[in-house]
Amino acid sequence: MRIALDAMGGDHAPGPIVAGAVHALADQPDLQVVLVGDQTQIEACLPTGDFPRDRLEVFHASQTIAMDDSPVEALRRKPDNSISRCWQLLAERKVEAVVSAGSTGAMVAGGLRLKRFLPKVRRPGIATVMPTIRGYCVLLDVGANVYPKPLHLFHYGVMGAIFAKHILHIPHPTIGLMNVGHEEGKGHDLARDTHALFNNSPLKDRFVGNVEGRDIHRHACDVIVTDGFVGNVVLKVCEGVFDFIMKMVGKEIVAPLPNDQRIALNALQGLIDRYDYSEFGGAPLLGIDGICIICHGASGDRAIRNALKVAAQYARLGLNQLIVQELDAIPVPSGIDE
């Protein structure tokens, strides 16, 4: 299993990125990692002790795309950037997956430039796992496609259901459409047209209709589809609320406890660890011919290690082949604008 890792992507790169790769190599004997980025900086971060150096390769890229760069302009202006080189390795079939904690926009734009989509997929989407009162659900898209068409959202439903079934182990995933109300006629044209498309498709028995933002953590359904703008806002609001609540619980409940606080602190830390983004490593960009994992910009070595782990898991599982089979088996009503 060979994976390209953008060593220069992230708020604190390359240190935690390189450390995460080294930890992942220790965990997975069949894993090979190609660290893509500035060779001098990368090698300065490699540990001096014993580690499987024979399964780690450095692919030099002289340029880096910053978080505040315009993604499309940066890809054009900096051709030797680490993100483009990761995609190059994937396109040349030299790796089976790419992982980056760098600019999400640049990662998505880099994939779009290659146009290496799975059959029938018109636009890839980023899927993220959300905690609920009953396990987890999948939300997509959370940032790749801010101007989708109904067919794109329909495909997200199919891909999300495959992900929920084989990764979250939900036997018969249900699908919902993010909207401003549960009623069928609610929302803008995109929402109403997508609702009608699901209702007139072979997925109508799995489609629960519209869901609202407050339904996510109630587990109203297993897969929630939406456009990339709304999905990204929802994701970041949820992250912010979770962080706020955990801090307030620590301040207002745990801190004032008169006796031993260790049990409460351990319980609180366990909750944080369970739902922290680093536990899942990153979010897959579904619909790409290859595995792509997009990580949080603040990812540390734990998140990177887990991102490499899930990238290898998806590749071994044949997640893309399962998506292709499902899309091929589901006819889309004629006359749909692609």
Structure description:
- The chain has 338 residues and is α/β, with parallel strands linked by helices.
- The protein folds into 2 domains: 2-121 and 287-323, 3-Layer(aba) Sandwich (Isopropylmalate Dehydrogenase); 125-275, Isopropylmalate Dehydrogenase (3-Layer(aba) Sandwich), CATH 3.40.718.10.
- 43% of the residues lie in helices and 16% in strands.
- The protein is built from 11 helices and 11 strands.
- The chain has an 11-stranded mixed β-sheet, sandwiched between helices.
Quick gist of this model?
The chain has 338 residues and is an alpha/beta fold. It is 43% helix and 16% strand.
Attribute tags:
alpha/beta, 16% strand, Isopropylmalate Dehydrogenase, 11 helices, 11-stranded mixed beta sheet, globular, 338 residues
Task: Compile the SSE list and pairings.
Blueprint: E1 2-6, H1 15-27, E2 32-37, H2 39-45, E3 56-60, H3 71-77, H4 82-91, E4 97-100, H5 104-114, E5 125-132, E6 135-140, H6 150-166, E7 175-178, H7 189-199, E8 207-211, E9 223-225, H8 228-254, H9 262-275, E10 283-286, E11 291-294, H10 301-317, H11 319-329
Parallel strand pairs: 1-2, 1-4, 2-3, 4-11, 6-9, 7-8, 7-9
Antiparallel strand pairs: 5-6, 5-10, 10-11
Helix pairs in contact: 1-10, 3-5, 4-5, 6-7, 6-11, 8-9
